[in-house]
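Components:
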Amino acid sequence: MDEEIYKENILDHNRNPHNREVLDEYDLRGGGTNPTCGDELELFVKLGEDGKVTHATFLGSGCAISQAGASMLTDKLKGLPGQGMTLAGLKLLAPGDIYSMLGIHISPGRVNCALLAYRALNDGLKNAKA
Amino acid sequence: MSMLDTKAIKKDFPIFEHEKDLVYLDSAATSQTPQVVLDAMNGYYTSFRSNIHRGLYKMGEEASEAYESARASVARFIGAAPEEIVLTSGATASSNMLVRMLEESGSIFPRTPLGFQGESLEDEIVATVMEHHASLIPLQELAKREGLAIKLVPVGLAYGIDYDAAEKLITPKTKIVACVLASNVLGTINDVRRLADLAHKVGALMIVDATEAVGHIPVDVKKLGADFLYFSGHKMLGPTGIGVLYGRKDLLEALPPSVFGGGIVEKVTGESATWTSSPKRFEAGTPNIAGAIGLGAAVEYLGKVGVENIHAHVRELTSYAFEKLAQIPGIHVFAAPVEQNVGIISFTIDGLPAAATALQAGVHPHDLAQIAGDSNVAIRAGHHCAAPLMQTLGVPATARASFYLYNEKADIDALIEAIKKAQMMFAK
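Structure:
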């Protein structure tokens, strides 16, 4: 029995995802597809004048892990008011950060689910005009 | 209808001794292996391992005989002649090789010039939207390389092929018709013969992907009207890494090889080579000898249990699963009715919009597969390598349960329990 993956905070983020909306004005917009199940997710980021993230949102449906991952990642990007991550910080995010953020064991079969929002973010960074 | 004695059958499969509470509902992905298959392969490795068609010593002859006798068993199993059976590494290799063989032959795709009044006369490939990527993508790539159009027959009533649409799509321009015999998502057993007759009427070749069908329902290449047909060993109790490409004798004989190497030549000079007879011409290099011997043993085992008995057993299970799944609130089943089903059911747990109880919650297929897996219930979640079909079904992914000779009704009960458990976890 290894149900630890569905910890209460994961289920909670899945039930009531944070930041699940479209941003009309954004600086980064990227999409990701989970190749194993076809789930799609879009992520939007708006930067403030100080270059820090003020808004981060996502849209898309998927399994609990991908939804919780997107909900938690967008929270993380925004941080506390006035303490959003910088563009340089976004570029430094690595898969390991996402796993620690989720705080659960991600088996090889669920890597694509866990990293769906992260991939959408990277797609946005790639699309961003320098 | 009678069911198989699963207690006895399970004893033939060592996995159930090793994993005592395994509920294996993923045979459409790969089946389990009976001891007789392992013994046959082990026999080769321990008592007569040597290369085939080369050694002049006793073991070499023994290996060659075992390999050729496997080919003969497979041929008998699908109503073909041994010289019509090419042993490959699996359905994907068969499909890719076949497309290249047809392309290399040059005779099948004369590039059609523009017609008299400038209208396009480009050749066409007709496949179905149910095709597995292993069948579809090689054809797509062929179409791209050779400038052919590719048309997909849509799904019609009861998750079957839309045969009326097929009749309109198959025209004198059609050079190839490709159809999966049993859908790996919907379980549908397609009326391949009907498409084959349409194909032959316009002079097109009929290619059949029988991967989910062979060993599950009786398959006879002649009755199906297949010009080419392929499948994998590992979905019919054989080992992984072995598969079959059947080709009608006269057609195979006219095709060049597409994989080159040793064992397929008649004469080689510094500049070029000529090919030996078919089917050897298509088996370059040392083949998967143990795999072929294992596949031969699997076919013998299936013959002993009886494919018709297996299908009858699986139908009982499919019918029972339909009945049980229908009781889950908010379930959507994507599967052919039991009479046309090979033993595969896809479904999604959408939940009810205003779920009043925990048992009405929706669960994503991946989450369901994981929670089921935690209870040792093996099912599949995903697009099942049939993305165009998923697009027409309007879902990114489904959960899939598939049944085979070693499954019993208790396995389906375990699946239902797992679904309920997942719904409880995902209740709002």
